[in-house]
Write a structure and sequence with these properties.
- This protein is α+β, with helices and mostly antiparallel strands.
- It has one domain: Gcn5-related N-acetyltransferase (GNAT) (Aminopeptidase), CATH 3.40.630.30.
- 35% of the residues lie in helices and 34% in strands.
- The radius of gyration is 15 Å and the shape is globular.
- The chain starts with a strand and ends with a strand.
Amino acid sequence: MIKIRKATPTDTVVLAHLADVTWVVSHGHYIEDKNDVLQYREASFSVSKTRQEIDKPKNIFYIIYVDDVPAGYAKIVLNENQESVASQNSCRLERIYIQNEFIPLKIGQQLLTYVEEKAKALQFDAMWLTVYILNTRAIRFYERNAFKNVGAVRFNVSGKEYENIVFSKEIV
């Protein structure tokens, strides 16, 4: 059974673990220096950093479960504008990560649909995100879901920059 729910501060350890595991699998192989991977993980996905993030009112996390096992999560940032996105009433899908063994179940689609509905209910008219230019699986996923390439940004990992596409979608 698939269940999605809003995360609370009591989910901090689960979120930190999901973030760390899923980011390494989905992005870690793109980073040339493995010490940079380790530093980024420690800076971005520690329990203390995750606690800081979940405590911010403009961040909302959703966890997706498969048979009561946490399989992935999404994070949206409310009222987050981006210069490439026309809407001034947008939110950012900062993360949507699914553990590798659950990807064949296509629960990422269910989680994205759920998050889009929540953003609509909060009266946002657009959602945007960034994705690394070599992450073809993610790019195809967003394109299938009507996200449009509207620009580019650079993502910094330990001083090295990686080019990312900015995708945007109207969600009215």
